[in-house]
Amino acid sequence: MTNTRPSVRKGLLIAAAALVAVQIASFGHASAASAAASSTIINVGGLVQTGLTTATIKGVTYLSVKPFAAALGVTVKWEQATKTTTLTQGTRTVKFDVDAKKALVNGKSVALPSAAIWNDGAVWVPARYIAETFGATIGLDKATSTLTITPRLHPFESDDKQGYVNVFGEIVIAAQYDEANAFSEGLAIVNKDGKYGYIDINGKAVIAPQFDEAYDFSDGLALVVKADGTSAYIDAKGKTILTPFYDESFDFSEGLALVRIGDLFGYIDHKGKEVIKLQFEDAFYFNNGLAAVQIDGKYGYIDKTGKIAIPAIYQHAFDFSNGLGLVQAEGADGEGAFGYVNAQGVLAVPAKNAQGFSFSEGLAAVSNDGVFSYVNSKGETVLSTKYEDVGDFHDGLASFEEGGKYGFINRSGEVAIKPTFDSVEAFNKGLARVVVGTEAKLINVKGKVVAKAASPAVEVAAPTPAPATTPAPAATPAPATK
């Protein structure tokens, strides 16, 4: 885990864009069951689906199969004679009959927790089972009535070309690109013949390769550099929405994009209006409604109106995560201790740690005696380790170093994956990139290799382990160049 504050840009060539909402369509048969559609918000891959609704039948959440499959990037085939539905994504197939309690998954018979049914003239399927069978995660937030479904496709490499596998390591999109980058909100940036464009989770070129540089979509817009050298923000259809005139422009976060002219930073909105004037010596993304900025050499936080929400009194300040912002207090020798402020500017965790890292999955790694422990949002130590280098928790696992090799521990501190790798990256959506010698692999949460990892577009340093030195100063956001 690096102590250096993550760059404002989420990474070169990582993109996201809106999934196209699909109208619910029936197979043209009468309903044998009925259920009222709920008011649940359905979020697939980070975007709300306006054409997809849920129904609760006998306590099970169901979705109409056609729009659900389309949102997951899965194709649907209906066999009228047998009333059989076949779902296909890459090399994975799921075949089932209405009202049957069994299905064929890649030809193997498996028991279903709930059967597919007819409802309002369409085939409806149990949402959790179908999502997880195709490698997606699914969760319901009852407080906000939001059903969140996250597809999990990962770049892999074969014969010097790159494509995508699911979390099981099965090929979903064939290796055909010079570069393939992670999906976010339904689209991924790919490179063909030196130009960048965007594909959807079906592998369809939504925006043809045409850009010299391309960055991740955020708030429905992505920053690109065109062949003539001009920068622009485009929408999910590739239409130019804004043409910035600043020295540097950055991704949107929570409705605002960071921009710079000379030595000063400010923020613009989706219409290009400068809503927070250029006045800060350093500035970063908004997160939880707050952004870290530098004023007169010190760091604090502003809200989305530009008002100072937390006074600039810190040596360094880092993005809010899990409701808390990592800050470094002023020290007599210039290297102050680390603590965590809440949105009200109160130190929820006192600044007393020699090293500190941002919260992830409710825990933050801290160190005072050369080895790391993990604290909760109250500053209570909930997990002690013997390791000098550790990583943040992702997918319930955190990296650690022992004897020059890297592995992963679980939230109980138990070794879940033995330290056999020369370097590792954090788990993300079920898989982690690891390196042994010169070979990069994708492993699952059990440590099993599922595919050869795609080479990164830009060479990165050894991934998650933390250095034994104090964190470096908050970095200036990455420029809009490679």
From TrEMBL:
Region (Disordered): 462-482
Keywords: Signal
All residue ranges annotated as the Copper amine oxidase-like N-terminal domain in the record: 56-149
Signal peptide (from-to): 1-32
Pfam families registered for this protein in UniProt: Cu_amine_oxidN1, WG_beta_rep
Alphabetized InterPro entries for the sequence: Cu_amine_oxidase-like_N, Mao_N_sf, WG_beta_rep
Top-level taxon of the source organism: Bacteria
Biased composition (Pro residues): 464-476
Protein name: Copper amine oxidase-like N-terminal domain-containing protein
Organism of origin: Cohnella abietis
